[in-house]
Specification:
The structure holds 2 protein chains of 2 kinds. Chain A is an all-alpha fold. Chain A is built from 6 helices and no strands. The chains are: A mainly alpha, B mainly alpha.
Chain lengths: ~120, ~150
């Protein structure tokens, strides 16, 4: 690896590290979002419809409250999987492609080696 | 029909003939209803892919080899992934986020249904390809006596 490549790599990693440290520092200093304070679990279990999430903020409350306006999906789970977390679903699909390509490599190899053995056998005969 | 396959019992053949369309239709139903009911692309795709096991039970490795094209399945898997990425990227080109509903929000039209179908197609092709490879490994040990028989017949 040449000197300029090393320099660029070091600079990129340093910038990424700085961004991560800065984001973590900001998150640690910001006020906590909904932490579930004052929620009685026994009451909530007995009467789930009494759960009050109007005071909650953050991404979860937006997903539950404004689902129909934002995505026009009937199902909240569906909208989370394919709209709010679309990157996640795409990554799962790529994992499947990678897994199948890997097993293709392994299983193809045995087939080729079997053919080679047969050819050698024929030659010997 | 040059290659004659080893006949399985008539019960398993008739059962696979009976349940094959049911399995395919049920899997497609789960994929297409993923937007409103439990299930979705991944689960429905695996249900459709399980049809190959019924073919294997009914007709053995011969039926699997002659009814499925492994290379086409492997490439259609990639085509489905490209479909997903393109449908998701249209949201970016209209000035919104990735994977967002690019049709006007508030209407009862959700574009992620198309992404769900793409994922179903992708999982169906991928799992079928995987099962074909596993069954071919299972059939490798039985290949040699069959070839000997062909040579004898020829």
């Amino acid at each position: 690896m040449s000197g300029t490549k090393k320099l660029v790599l070091t600079l990129t990693l340093a910038v990424l590290l700085g961004c991560g440290v800065w984001a973590g520092w900001r998150m640690a200093n910001s006020e906590p979002t909904y932490d579930g304070e004052g929620v009685d679990l026994v009451e909530l279990y007995q009467d789930p419809s009494s759960y009050d999430n109007t005071g909650a903020d953050g991404a979860a409350a937006i997903m539950v409250n404004e689902n129909l306006e934002k995505t026009a999906a009937d199902n909240v789970v569906f909208s989370v999987v394919f709209n709010f977390r679309g990157y996640d679903t795409m990554g799962e699909s790529f994992i499947l492609i990678a897994a199948i390509a890997g097993s293709l490599v392994i299983l193809r190899k045995t087939a080729h080696s079997g053919k080679k053995e047969e050819e050698h056998h024929e030659e010997n005969v | 029909m040059k290659k004659t396959y080893k006949k399985t019992s008539i019960i398993s053949r008739c059962a696979s003939d009976l349940f094959l369309p049911l399995a395919c239709v049920f899997g497609c139903y789960v994929v297409l209803h993923g937007s409103t009911s439990p299930g979705g692309g991944f689960q429905g795709g695996v249900l459709v892919a399980s049809a190959i096991l019924l073919v294997y039970l009914g007709y053995g490795g011969w039926g699997v080899k002659h009814s499925f094209n492994e290379h086409m399945l492997h490439s259609s898997e990639t085509v489905a992934e490209i479909m997903y990425v393109v449908i998701a990227l249209v949201g970016v080109f209209t000035g919104l986020n990735f994977c967002v509903n690019f049709v006007f929000a508030g209407q009862q039209v959700d574009t992620s249904i198309l992404m769900n179908d793409a994922v179903g197609y992708h999982v169906m092709a991928g799992i079928t390809c995987l099962l074909i490879m596993m069954l071919s490994v299972l059939e490798d040990g039985k290949d040699d006596p069959n070839e000997d028989k062909e040579e004898d017949a020829a």
